[in-house]
Amino acid sequence: MDITIVGGGVCGLALAHELAPDHRVTVLESSPGPRGGGYMIDFFGPGFVAAERMGVLEELRLRGHVFDGVRYGLPDGSDSGTIDAGPLVEAAGGRYFSILRPEVELGLLAQLPDSVDLRYGTRVVEVEDVGPERAAVVTAGGEVLTSDLVVACDGVRSPVREQVAPGHGPILPMGYRAASYLYEDPQLAHELGERMLMSDSIQRVGWLYAADVDQVGVMFAERVDRQGTERPVPDPDRLCRRFSGLHPQIDRALTHVPDSFYDDLVAQSHAPRWSRGRVVLAGDAAHAPSLLAGQGTSLAIAGAEALARSLRAAGPHIEVGLAEYERRWRPTAEKVRRSGRLSASAFIPATTFQLRVQQVGRRAMGLPGVSRLLSRQFVAA
Length: 381
Ligand SMILES: Cc1cc2nc3c(=O)[nH]c(=O)nc-3n(C[C@H](O)[C@H](O)[C@H](O)COP(=O)(O)OP(=O)(O)OC[C@H]3O[C@@H](n4cnc5c(N)ncnc54)[C@H](O)[C@@H]3O)c2cc1C
Hints:
Layout: E1 2-6, H1 10-19, E2 24-29, E3 40-43, H2 46-54, H3 57-63, E4 69-73, E5 79-84, H4 86-91, E6 97-100, H5 101-110, E7 117-120, E8 124-129, E9 135-139, E10 144-147, E11 149-152, H6 160-164, E12 172-184, H7 186-192, E13 195-199, E14 204-210, E15 215-223, H8 236-243, H9 248-254, E16 262-268, E17 275-276, E18 279-281, H10 284-287, H11 296-314, H12 318-342, H13 352-365, H14 370-380
Parallel strand pairs: 1-2, 1-11, 2-7, 4-13, 11-18
Antiparallel strand pairs: 3-6, 4-5, 8-9, 9-10, 12-15, 12-16, 13-14, 14-15, 17-18
Helix pairs in contact: 1-5, 1-11, 2-11, 11-12
This protein binds flavin-adenine dinucleotide (FAD).
């Protein structure tokens, strides 16, 4: 059958990879090429297992890295503690690595079958269930594509969600805003070495890591009002003002903020149904857990694989396949979304008291057995 995928991010590419052997697949992606810029994600959980089954894991692993751990830094440049990654990797049975988000896209692209018609620079402006058994998309250029199934993999702010599940279109902000960028700084990359740096601070937090021998990755997050849903406008001056003084190395990285960088509210998405007629949601469009769960990319890959598997098993009975996808996959997606909500209040300490509690917790992580236990709980979440 003909399948149109809206969005060539992690979910869209993973889905195209899985559907290509059985179907004619077109992927419409609004950006002019693979999206660059990005942050380091932890890759483990259901997506890791799915990537293994899809035969793309080695490609991703080659592009990934295992850090020694995290060190916590204070404004005077001293460290207040460290956490080792070893127990986490061990608890995940070695099925864990860090990888830059754009590298996940590039890894999936490298493995994409030639039969997939991937069109960059093509923005979809309308998706419609035109029945019987057909759906259509309209591009900004005015082209209309009809197919047997349209899959919206267009991210957490997907407008298609409102169509499929009326009243559930808006994102669900978690009370944080995050920004990230990469820049060239071999000297700082060398100084950072194998440990990520995280600021030990309240209300706002900064992370630095060596993305490779030449590049430094920077990420910031701050507490914000939960009410707004508008995407913030990236502003380098604001970023510098807001996050200076956390740590001398972070201040150095703040002198290299590019004009354009990732900046958005930390948010989840929820839809009580994932399909309507021949239009179905996948990845963040269906079930974004937010960066607080640390598994958005993992879920996007595993959800894509689950959808492809259900469609394969249902053969020509597409509605049966869509219902089965939701029945099998929703419990896992909901569990991860819940864990994201549970960690929301503790993500960045709001007060000095909360900060002290976290510092004591970090010291306890160093005790025999405790770090192993907590790592197991984190991986199981
Ligand atoms: C700061 C931050 C840190 C994160 N950390 C982690 C982490 O540690 N671990 C983890 O697993 N996950 C993490 N995530 C989440 C992860 O990046 C996403 O959950 C994951 O990439 C979801 O993939 P997706 O393909 O569903 O959506 P997206 O990656 O958002 O892709 C959607 C694609 O659709 C395209 N698109 C949108 N609208 C249209 C349109 N109208 N027409 C055509 N194309 C369109 C977009 O250009 C984009 O390429 C983090 C996210 C953020 C913001």
